Amino acid sequence: MEKDIILLLSGFIVGAMNAIAGGGMLVGFPVLVALGIPPITASATGTVITTPGQIASAIGYWKYLRKVPIRYAQLLVPTVIGAILGALTLRNTSPHDFARMVPALVLFGVVLFAFQPLLHLHLHRHLKGSLKGRTKKALPLVILGLPMIPICFYGGYFGAGYGFLMLAFLGFTSLPDTHMINAMKNVSAIFVSTTSMICIYSAHLIDWRVGLIAAIGAAAGGFLGARGAQRMSSHWLRIAIICIGLAAVVYLALQQY
Question: What total of structural domains would you count in the chain?
Answer without folding.
Answer: 1
